[in-house]
Amino acid sequence: MNTINVLFTADGFRLNGTLHMPKREIDNGAMPIVVGSHGLLSNGGSPKQIALAEKLNRAGIAYFRFDHRGRGESDGLFSEVSTFAGRINDMSAAIEAARTHSGADGPLGLFGSSMGGAVCLGVADRFNIRAMVTLAAPVRLEAIRIPQDIANDPLFGDMKQEQLAFDVAPLLEHACGILVFHGDADEVVSFSNAMEIHEKTSPPKQLIRFSGGDHAISAPRYQQQFIEQAADWFISRLLSS
User: Fold this and answer.
1) What pTM value is reported for the model?
2) Fewer CB atoms near the end CB (10 Å): N or C, the chain?
């Protein structure tokens, strides 16, 4: 797998990214690219993003994953710099950096896990997005039930709730070509969020319900299903003429 470390900036923060480049080019020469956004406490090194990148690379699609500000190897103290607006700006800068460093001027796809899914929806009106995949994404901050053990995590420090306030419902109409994954036993973000996203976004769209699936989609069979169907969705949408 051909990976390239990419450093870029958003609002003055230096962010760390990894570009996965395919070994072969697609026939028409206009390489598509997918950019991924991780969850609130995660980072760009999540196994599902790496697995998805590998599968898409084999099809000739580039993939870019990165650490939002305050996470992973990117600048900033999480409790001080984490805001939803900041993550929107991170994602916008990541898309521009990914295209610049890869030369991928073909169709654009986005992937977002948990809050990363909300971030993808939050930039739907800024870019021409051919395909989007979300996993356990919330529509608004009030939809997130943070477990007590996580709420007590020192990472949250003196964070104020308004730092992460968001509601992407008004932007859902701008998203199309979306595949929504969600477990109906999600203990953090209820399945009703997936139904709202699917209802209010534009076709083509599809909702995949993981029966008994939790927020982390910890069941191996669902993890495998996610990788296979997410990759197929991107391939069918980004490589079509």
Assistant:
1) 0.96
2) C
